[in-house]
Amino acid sequence: MSSKNLDVLNALDSARTQLYHFKAIVIAGMGFFTDASDLFCISTVSKLLGRRYYFDPTSNKPGKLPHIVKNFGYWSGLGCPRAVMGTLCFFRFWLGFGIGGDYPLSATIMSEYANKRTRGAFLAAVFAMQGVDPIFSTEPEADYVRRIVLMLGALPALLTYYWRMKMPETARYTALIEVNAKQAAADMGRVLDVEIQAEQEKLAQFKAANDYKLLSTEFFQCHGLHLIGTMTTWFLLDIAFYNQNLTQKGIFPTMGLTSSASAVSALGEMFETARAMFIIALLGTFPGYWFTVFFIEKIGRFYIQLVGFLMMSIFMLIIGVKYDYLNTKEHKWYFATLYGSTFFFANFGPNSTTFVLPAELFLTRVRSTCHALSAASGKAGAMISAFGVQNYTQDGDVNKIKKAMMFLAFTNMLGFCCTFLVTETKGKSLEEISGEDAGKSEAEMTHKPPTYRPEASWE
Predict the structure, then answer these.
(1) How far is residue 39's CA from residue 41's CA, in Å, rounded to a whole number?
(2) With bands split at pLDDT 50, 70 and 90, how would you rate the model's confidence at 81?
(3) Which of 61, 127, 215, 226 is 20 to 30 A from residue 305's alpha carbon, by CA?
C-alpha cells in the first residue's frame, strides 16, 4: 500500500501554508527558547556565582568558580557554596530532562504538520528559536540578579506546557500508528483548512506493511546507516559547538569586548559579558540560523551540513595555527571575525541540519525515538567538550589551546565525512524518505550527493 493512495497523507503534503503552521513553529520553538535561555545565561550567572561564593580575601581578586564547579560536576555538601551549586545542578538536571524530551517532540510535531515543500524551513525555524534569547542587565544586588535571570527561564517553559496541552496529536501518528482515520481527520479539521477522508481499511494495510520496530533486522537494513549518520554528526558537532559557547567569556577580553574582572564590579562584568554575547549572537549566531531557514529548501540539508562542517574546520584550524598572532589586542578584530564565523557556519550548517535530518529520515513509528537517540549522542559530545577539552585548556596554556583548536578542527572534518551516511530529503514526503511509501528505503540506494534541482516556491 503506497502513501500516494492515502488521502490523509496527500492532504498534509500538499496543504497550503497556513496560520497554524506558524503557530506550530512558535509552540514547538518555545522549548528551544527555554534551552537557549539555559545555555547562554549560564556564562553570566557563573561569573556572579564565582564572585559571590568563591571570593579569596588573601589575594583581594574577584572570585571565580573552580573548574569542576563551573562544569556542574559538584553535587554534594551542605555548606553555602556547595548547597547553592548542588541545588543548581539538581534543577538543571530536570531542565535537561525536560529539554531532552522536547527536542524529539518539537522536531516530530513540526515535520509531521508541515507540507513537503516547506518542511525543512519550518523545522529550521523551530530550531532558530534558540537564537532569539533576550539579554537582561540591571544594577541591583548581584545575587538577586542571577536569581532573576534563572527564574525568567521558567516563563517560556510554562507557556510551552500550556500550548502543548491544547495541541492535537499529529494526523500522521493518529492515522498510521493508532490507525484511527476518523480522529486524524477531526484533529486536522480543528487546526488546518484541509479535507481528510477516513480510510480505515487502507490505513490498516499501510501499517501492516511498515510495522517493524527499532530493534529489528528490517530497521537496520533500511535505516541503520542513517541512524549512525545522524548520531555521529550530532555527537561530533557538539564537541566543537559547546566548546565555543563555554569558552566565550574567556575569549572576550582578548577581543577587547570585556574588561578584566578586577577592573569592574560584579554587575559591570555581567553587563559586559552579556553585551559581548549579544554582539557575537547578532553578527554570527542569529544570521546563521535564519540563513538556514531561508536557504534550506533551495540548497538542501546535505550541502548545508557539508559546507558548515568544512568551514568550521577551516576557521578553527586557522585559529589554532595562528593563535599566537591572533591572541593580541592589535589583531583582536581578525580574531573576532574568525571566531564569529565559526558560529555563523555552525548555525548555517550542522547545528541546524543535525536537528532537521533525524526528524525526516525515519519512519513514523520510531521518528521521535531516533531523533532522541541522535540528540542524546550530541549531548554526549557536549560532555566530552566540557570535561575533556575544557579541562585540558583550563590553565590557559597557549600550546594546549592551539592543540585543542586543531583537535576541534579534526572533529569537524570527521563530521564532514560522516555526513555522507545520510541522504538529501528536500522536496520529498516523509513516507518517500523513510521507505514507508513503496517498501524501498533511501538507505538501500547509493549514498551519493543528490543532484540539485529547483524546488517549488512557497505558497
Answers:
(1) 6
(2) low
(3) 215
Q: What is the CATH number of the domain that holds 209?
A: 1.20.1250.20
Helix (H) or strand (E) holding 319: helix 301-321
If one counts the domains in the chain, the total is 1
Angle CA 308–313–316, to nearest 5: 120
Radius of gyration of the chain (CA): 23
Range of the domain at 344: 3-444
- 187 domain-assigned: yes
The answer to whether residue 418 sits within a structural domain is: yes
Residue 179 counted as domain residue: yes
Q: What contacts 185, CB < 8 A, 6 or more positions away?
A: 8, 171, 196, 197, 198
Residue 442 confidence class, pLDDT cut points 50, 70, 90: very low
Residue with cell 528559536: 129
pTM, rounded to two decimals: 0.76
More confident residue, 69 or 160: 160
Q: What is the pLDDT of residue 74?
A: 38
Q: In the prediction, which pLDDT does 195 show?
A: 65
CA–CA distance, 239 with 243 (Å, rounded to integer) = 6
Report how far residue 16's alpha carbon sits from residue 115's, in angstroms, rounded to the nearest whole number: 7
Mean pLDDT over 331-349 rounds to 87
Task: Check residue 19 and give its pLDDT.
Answer: 76
270, part of any domain: yes
The pLDDT-based confidence of 79 (bands split at 50, 70, 90) is very low
What Cα–Cα distance (Å) separates residue 429 from each residue in 3, 187, 194, 435?
A: 9, 20, 17, 10
